[in-house]
Design a protein that fits this description.
By secondary structure, the protein is an alpha+beta fold. 45% of the residues lie in helices and 21% in strands. It contains nine helices and seven strands; from the N terminus they run H-H-H-E-H-E-H-E-E-E-E-E-H-H-H-H. Strands 1, 2, 3, 4, 5, 6 and 7 form a seven-stranded mixed beta sheet that branches. Strand 4 and strand 5 form a beta hairpin. Helix 1 packs across helix 7. The longest helix is centred in the middle third of the chain and has 14 residues. It is globular, with a radius of gyration of 18 Å.
Length: 205
């Protein structure tokens, strides 16, 4: 077995059942719509499943919840975050507060809910509540998804995420994805073995 075949086997071993994860995530859409109380703009899959970088060692699906900027007149970002957590708990789900998301267990799947308030009436820039620091951050999930999906580095990203999980390292997925893309600028596509080792040397050395 070549090194390339070995790495491909690792990727296959930790492949996510995307259809099952997607169905589990979508089962929460009705609950989210009720909770949003008319302020919901859009609910959609985001994170690694949408980007094509999902692995079975991490969250199975992320749901990005886009809320109208008008909700800011009545609820703060922390109010939005905490009220969604209470709604999920009251519906009988097992949930946990994370940094910008709320983790929900649905059967064997781990789903992350990411409530976000759009910053203006138009555009895709959103504000997220950061529970660990009681602060906020800005995101544009559509741009993140586009940049990663079109990077031609999906397998290198998957391998790096697998490495992170197996070594119990704390490295946010968004930053990891961008770091891999940055590290491999100027290097040939499709050179999985050499590219992956370049990433390990630069990021984790």
């Amino acid at each position: 077995m070549s090194n390339y075949e070995y790495l491909q086997g690792i990727i296959y071993k930790y492949t996510v059942d995307s259809s099952g994860a997607e169905n589990a995530a979508k089962s929460l859409y009705r609950l989210i719509d009720i909770w949003a109380n008319g302020y919901l703009i859009e609910t959609k899959l985001s994170g690694s499943l949408a980007k094509g970088t999902a692995i079975s060692l991490g969250t199975d699906a992320d749901i990005f919840i886009s809320l109208s900027s008008a909700i800011g007149y009545t609820l703060s970002l922390s109010d939005i975050y905490n009220s969604l957590y209470e709604k999920v708990i009251s519906a009988g789900y097992t949930a946990r507060k994370q940094n910008v998301s709320i983790g929900v267990n649905i059967g064997n799947y781990k789903i992350d809910l990411v409530p976000a308030r759009r910053q203006s009436q138009y555009g895709n820039d959103h504000s997220l509540y950061k529970s660990k620091t009681n602060s906020w951050t800005q995101t544009n999930i559509d741009r993140h998804i586009y940049d990663v999906r079109n990077s031609n580095r999906l397998n290198e990203i998957k391998l790096t995420k697998i490495w992170r999980e197996l070594h119990s390292l704390s490295f946010p997925s968004l930053y990891l994805e961008l770091a891999v893309i940055y590290c491999l600028r100027g290097y040939r596509y499709g050179q999985l073995e050499s590219n992956f080792f370049k990433v390990l040397f630069i990021i984790f050395n």
